[in-house]
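Worked example (supplementary).
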Amino acid sequence: MSILIDKNTRLLVQGITGSEGLFHTRQMVAYGTNVVAGVTPGKGGQWVDDKIPVFDSVKIAVEATGANTSVIFVPARFAADSIFEAADAGIPFIVCITEGIPVRDMMLVRNYIDQKGVRLLGPNCPGLLTPGESKVGIIPGNIAIPGNIGIVSRSGTLTYEVLYALKQKGMGASTCVGIGGDPVNGTNHIDVLQMFEDDPQTDKVVMIGEIGGTDEEKAAEFIATKMTKPVVGFIAGQTAPPGKRMGHAGAIVEGGEGTAEAKIRALEAAGVKVARHPEEIPLLLQ
Amino acid sequence: MKLHEYQSKQIFSRYGIPIPRGRVAATAGEARHIAEELGGRVVVKAQVLVGGRGKAGGVKVAKDPQEAELLATQILSMEIKGLPVRKVLVDEAAAIEQEIYLGITNDRAARKPVIMCSAAGGVDIEEVARTHPEKIVKVHINPLLGIKDYQTRDIAAGIDLPREHWKTFGDILKGLWQAFQDNDATLAEINPLIISKDNRLVALDGKMLIDDNALFRHPDLSEMRDTDEDAPSEVEARKYGLTFIKLDGNVGCMVNGAGLAMATMDILKFFGGAPANFLDIGGGAGAEKVAAAMRIILADPNVKAILINIFGGITRCDEVAKGLIAAMEEVRPSVPMVVRLVGTNAEEGRAMLANASMITAETLAEAAQKAVAAAKGA
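After joint prediction of all chains, the assembly is encoded as:
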């Protein structure tokens, strides 16, 4: 068992012929992910590596291949359109890797897909990895081993750092989920915590947050009232100055809201062990 | 990106929002000329991208053009919170009966824009939110629908606005919503929106923040960017597609990924050091970008050591190593460098740096401790 993706995932790649889309499609195939189709408007009829058919639209690709999950590598100015297209074509789970989508576009996307009951992961995220089974997105497959620890994170490389630190100690992951660093995203910490709570393969959870917004505070309340599995936390950005966007569009302390201190306090009050630096996480899980 | 008051008000005006007559001036002579045109009393307002201009003496009323020139001379020679005043706005003075706050921003948690309005306007709205939250009316807007007439009436009633003003207020609010939408704003604020002594609604002050991610579809707004509020190193970094934020410490940081960059700064502090900057070289950074990053870090005289922490995923460690070697030949840094390369092509990267007299580290904790020690000259 795992969450969101597994061996039955039939993946479609939107933007498959772009340089990033192509590179990561090959990486995903090499990892064992079942990539059944690609979409690049205007390039329908081509094949990628003689194995993956390319279609002009998501609708045609879904009809032809039965794709049930989509991953998006489309440039920021076109990415919202790609999410709408996937949602309208009946894809129930969409992963958007693209960074830099305007927040107005994401407001429209989020309000629209909520009405349709479609799940979006990201944008501005590394995707997700179920070690040994499937990966959707860009998390390097070789830095994690299968195990019983569920990981949910707003970061990319910081998550890799944690997976790698766990692997060094022989600890493995059930699924690792990157929810992305944007202020308006599709899936938040609480959604994934609920899935890990329900997943029989997951025994412990690592939650990696960062400054900005109140997602971690809400997650703390959820952990205190709804979760039975132990959670270890880490919050990045204790040394970040207020009012400055720390790389991620969503990583900003505004009007006194979203500080690392407030998040750490909320998590500790909820019984979460909070690591002082990433390499402490495996120790707190033992 | 922040817009100045005069820029924000010009945009508001295009959406039918009444603003005072007035223009912006870069010299005291121009300010005098504008005051002559306007006639009567004028307000001379410093145009800087920080709050608290009034308290700092950057907003003054002049009774005639001579005084306007004198005040403009003073204000144009000021620095407010470290920012030079390069322009003043000269507006006709208003007789104020009541001050209202009206703003639209994005509510992250609700995933919807939210209108905030208060009869207690003219002051810092965050202060009102802290001390008298009941005095702020909040209404969320479904972005798929846009603002509805009944919502404008609910807000007007919520702040006890006299009924005679509801129609005009509704038009102003709908104009502000359209300005917010069309310009990809993350904040559009009128503070204060006044009821004047002669019973008109006027937007006396205006502020807009624009979503940097949306600037590609607003070339007109991109041109308005005032880089005074950014450190020169931050402006330079932007040219190379690097995200750089200057801090006060003495350990320069070069990291790939925003979350890891923050965590690297934090661990320096944990081990008793202080980061000199936030720097994310991004995913897949090549040698040229790495070299630019190195130059920008070394331009800060406070930097006593550099910590380079690269977790190779898309980014290849050998590419980073190539950039570091190129940068070192060019810049010849005199400060010690601690390098940690993990992940894609880390072995190759480390081999390339073997002769480059750098301090290497295996773990993040080890790298941070070595960098802190190096900065202290240990």
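Two points are worth noting when inspecting this output. The two ends of chain B are 42 Å apart (CA to CA). Chain B has a mean pLDDT of 93.
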